[in-house]
Specification:
Layout: E1 5-9, H1 15-24, E2 28-32, H2 37-44, E3 47-48, H3 52-57, E4 61-64, H4 71-80, E5 84-88, H5 95-108, E6 112-115, H6 122-132, E7 139-149, H7 165-182, E8 185-192, E9 205-213, E10 218-226, E11 233-240, E12 244-248, E13 255-258, H8 278-292, H9 300-319, E14 323-324
Helix pairs in contact: 1-8, 4-5, 5-9, 7-9
Length: 336
């Protein structure tokens, strides 16, 4: 069997965890980037494409790991060339642009995979499985925290028009988790430590987003870009009508459960494991979805919905008021 031919676009920080994944999957990888392609290719034994057209002719699947504003143009170029597309979050800078990418992929008959990697972290997967199994009853209050050292000073991450600041770039992981776990959101309210009108977000910033779900559940999502050396941490706490679930990346026992009679159960959540990188698991799942024709764990519309929430949060920051939202309906790829 011939190896999968992958075109990796971008050679920044996130590119290496994708490169590790493709290496583990024995893919034949070609890299194109305006900066850093030669160094990345030399490190991993990949080929280098001198331009985008050369990359597209050398691959079957395109993996986009570039800055947010380039996602749309690159995805459309790959789709026009008949290539399947994996795109790092967020799928696009605006919900309208994200929808255009989804429609283009659908019309071209190629697969589109928004890379929402937290859906592949074992603790988050196990937590959702327990919720779906009814272990804590109906979800009522959800809390998500994500924080660590801020991106490099002066980088595109801090430019609101490019990276979207902390909400669209960093917190979108947990906005997606809230949707994945508690379903549709009808109202969004956001506050931030830095003024929303600033074109450039400061190095240190904290944002808090409150999501009101259609079910009546409420999610509190907090994100922090902190000073150099701040330890990266994520946590999630779910409270339901029958119990609670909690995970914390810095805890000695990162997953715990509090349920009636749980002492005799032997525990419902496995300990965190790094045996397989979630990024590798994500790429493997997407490749498997292409081979099988089945729906992926993250669908194109999931990418749109997460951007819709980030967009609503940005609007709330400007107005200081809650924003009502009507999310695009969940749709399986086979219903296209």
């Amino acid at each position: 069997m011939k190896p999968l031919r992958v075109g990796l676009i971008g050679a920044g920080g996130i590119s290496r965890v994708h490169a590790d994944g493709w290496l583990a999957l024995d893919a034949d990888v070609t890299v194109f980037s305006h900066e850093g392609a030669d160094a990345l290719a030399a490190e991993y034994g990949f080929a280098v494409a001198p331009d985008l057209d050369s990359l597209l002719s050398a691959c079957d699947l395109v993996d986009i790991v570039t800055s947010t504003t380039s996602h749309g143009p690159l995805a459309h170029a790959a789709i026009r060339a008949g290539k399947h597309v994996i795109c790092e979050k967020p799928l696009a800078g605006t919900a309208a642009e994200a929808r255009e990418i989804v429609v283009a992929a659908r019309e071209a008959g190629v697969r589109l995979f928004p890379a929402h990697v937290v859906r592949f972290f074992p603790d988050y997967v196990a937590m959702r499985e327990q919720l779906v199994a009814g272990r804590i009853g109906e979800p009522a209050v959800l809390r998500f925290l994500r924080g660590g050292e801020a991106p490099r000073t002066g980088s595109w991450f801090h430019v609101e028009a490019e990276g979207g600041g902390i909400i669209r770039d960093q917190m979108i992981h947990d906005l997606d988790q809230a949707l994945w776990i508690a379903g549709d959101v009808v109202r969004v309210y956001a506050v931030r430590s830095a003024p929303a009108a600033d074109a450039v977000a400061p190095d240190a910033v904290t944002a808090h987003v409150v999501l009101t779900h259609a079910s009546g559940a409420v999610s509190h999502v907090q994100g922090t870009w902190g000073p150099p050396g701040l330890q990266f941490r994520t946590s999630a706490d779910l409270a339901g009508s029958l119990g609670t679930l909690s995970i914390d990346s810095t805890a000695h026992s990162p997953s715990r459960i509090e349920l009636p009679g749980s002492a005799a159960s032997g525990g419902y959540l496995p300990p965190q494991t790094n045996a397989v990188s979630p990024y590798t698991a994500e790429l493997r799942a997407f490749v498997g979805a292409i081979a099988s024709g089945e729906d992926a764990a993250v669908t194109p519309v999931d990418g749109v919905r997460a951007v819709q929430l980030a967009e609503a949060a940005a609007a709330s920051l400007i107005t200081g008021q809650p924003v009502e939202v009507a999310l695009d309906p969940i749709e399986t790829e086979h219903a296209r």
